[in-house]
Design goal:
Largest sheet: 6 strands, parallel
Structural class: mainly alpha
Shape: globular
Distance between the termini: 86 Å
CATH class of the largest domain: Mainly Alpha
Order of helices and strands: HHHHHHHHHHHHHHHHHEHEHEHEHEHEH
Number of helices: 23
CATH architecture of the largest domain: Up-down Bundle
Helix content: 55-70%
């Protein structure tokens, strides 16, 4: 197909068909999307090529994904998980590089190609892992947060590896050039961190509070900031992932982070489709099949060896075996950066097509296999739990299994207008644990509540995931729009909320629909307000 619009249309149609087939067969959607990318690519159906437009959409999707992840990572969390992220990240990189190098040498490769392949086997895909953990709602779990930490450490190592390759690729390159390049990266990285820190400290709180008066403008500004800082990161020699992630972190301390995250989820998932398509179209299937034997051996090493080294390191640091096991599974595949790195080596003339084909095959195998492993992690753990006891210390460091500061209210009030404010204040006066939810930043500013206020959008289907519902007995919506309340009910039921739900309504017909849809109680605010007035009138008449 010649036109980009026709290519995108073909891509989306094939993705829908592949996704529907995967759903019927109960297979992971990610595997279906990558398979669709290979199918529409030049080596199979030839419907689409890896164009700059598709690559751009993929990069924007990646930026939004990492931006949303950064939104959930506050400074307190970084301080708590920094040591284990650094230890596991660097430990796994060293282990895979050394053992992988020896394995590749044993397969008959020369030293330079073996070094490239070993380094390519080292890096895991931040994008795919974050997507999988998000789908499983495990990104905020302890193992998910630890995994995110050491994946970011790996991404930094990728940048350094590419600098070394580029600096040593030319004929005039020398040790001085390499030292200058690495020093430049350190200085540029420090400047980027200072910029983000100053923005998060002085600009973000005021800017978001002003923009939040219009929800559409707030989301537009968030997307603009994510993409802009990703572009700055690329100009400074880093990946767009690093910039977008830091952009999210700069807004993580604002009260609007959950609202922004929820509103971006649909756009993020749509654009990520192009990432998986672009990944599929770049796989050189023919060269990969030529190296299938060696690829199976190295894939087994990545699928088994990488998780084991992570479990060993985390076990030594005092983490429970289940946390170590589920975190370890996240490094059981190679990254899209592995393919970029190996392609860079080929462009420098330092390796041949056989090495490129081998890494491509390992990528296909490990990405698909690790997807199944992560989706089935709980069932796998139950079966091999006795064996995993060797990775757990007798004296566990239980203080690292947080979260001590988590809010666990019994009541959640959605909508802080006059009626919602009254409900919230009366619950507080009774001494109940309660939080409020509203998208208007002026709601909390106009009322000084002794209760946390979460900024969320009632129409966001992911709103329940943003709320602390572990101990919640009642969720009370003071909103009187029927469609919005039905939306809230549907989202809570999909989330599996097992508490009770109270809704507000102005008409008897709406009350009947809400009760039929699953509401436990429907409040008629006008009737409630009229009650005390009628009592007062009757008192004066008597």
């Amino acid at each position: 197909m010649d036109g980009i619009f026709e290519q995108v249309a073909a891509v989306l149609l094939v993705c829908v068909a592949a996704g529907a087939l995967a759903m019927l067969l109960r297979q992971p959607l990610i595997v279906a999307l990558i398979a669709a990318g290979i199918a529409v690519g030049p080596e199979v159906l030839g419907l689409v090529e890896s164009t700059s437009e598709i690559e751009l959409l993929a990069k924007i999707g990646i930026s939004l994904l990492l931006f949303v992840v950064g939104l959930k990572l506050d400074v307190r969390l970084v301080r708590k998980l920094g040591p284990v992220a650094l230890a596991t990240g660097l430990g796994q990189v060293a282990f895979t590089s050394i053992i992988g190098f020896l394995l590749v040498l044993a397969l008959g490769f020369d030293v330079v190609p073996a070094l490239y392949i070993a380094v390519a086997l080292t890096f895991s895909s931040t994008i795919i892992i974050v997507k999988l953990l998000t789908d499983k709602r495990e990104l905020d779990d302890l193992h998910g947060r630890i995994a995110l930490g050491f994946l970011i450490v790996q991404d930094i190592c990728v940048v350094l590896a590419m600098i070394v390759i580029t600096a040593t690729g030319g004929e005039a390159a020398g040790e001085g050039d390499l030292a200058v390049e690495i020093t430049g990266v350190v200085l540029r990285g420090a400047a980027l961190l200072v910029l983000v820190g100053l923005f998060g400290r002085y600009v973000a709180p005021r800017a978001t509070h002003l923009l939040a008066r219009n929800s559409e403008l707030l989301i537009l500004a968030a997307v603009a900031w994510a993409v802009a800082l990703a572009a700055v990161s690329i100009l400074l020699g880093f990946s767009e992932e690093v910039g977008a992630f830091l952009a999210g972190m700069s807004l993580a301390s604002t009260p609007y982070r959950e609202a922004i995250s929820g509103r971006l989820s649909t756009l993020r998932d749509f654009l990520l489709v192009f990432f998986f398509i672009e990944l599929g179209t770049t796989f050189e299937l023919s060269t990969a099949l030529d190296q299938i034997g060696a690829a199976l051996l190295l894939s087994a090493f990545v699928l088994i060896g990488n998780p084991i080294i992570v479990m060993i390191i985390m076990g030594v640091m005092g983490y429970r075996k289940k946390v170590s096991f589920k975190a370890g599974l996240t490094v059981a595949q190679i990254s899209e950066f592995s393919l970029i790195l190996i392609a860079l080596g080929a462009s420098q003339g330092q390796i041949g097509s056989d090495a490129v084909g081998l890494v491509t095959a390992v990528g296909l195998i490990t990405i698909a296999a690790s997807t199944y492993l992560i989706y089935s992690s709980d069932r796998i753990y139950e079966r091999i739990e006795p064996v995993l006891r060797i990775f757990e210390r007798k004296n566990l460091n239980t203080s690292i299994d947080f979260d001590e500061e988590a809010i666990e209210p019994e009541y959640v009030v959605i909508g802080l207008g006059r009626f919602g404010t009254t409900i919230l204040q009366e619950l507080l006066d009774r001494g109940d644990d309660v939080i409020g939810v509203d998208f208007d930043p002026r709601s909390a500013q106009n009322h000084r509540f002794d209760s946390p206020i979460i900024y969320g959008d009632a129409e966001d289907p992911d709103l329940p995931e943003q709320l602390p519902l572990t101990r919640a007995r009642w969720i009370i919506s003071s909103l009187r729009d029927l469609e919005v309340n039905l939306h809230i009910l549907s989202a809570l039921q999909h989330h599996g909320f097992d508490g009770k739900i109270a809704m507000s309504s102005d008409s008897q017909d709406d009350e009947a629909r809400l009760l039929a849809s699953g509401a436990d109680l429907v409040i008629r605010p006008l009737h409630v307000a009229a009650g005390p007035l009628m009592e007062e009138l009757h008192r004066h008449d008597s």
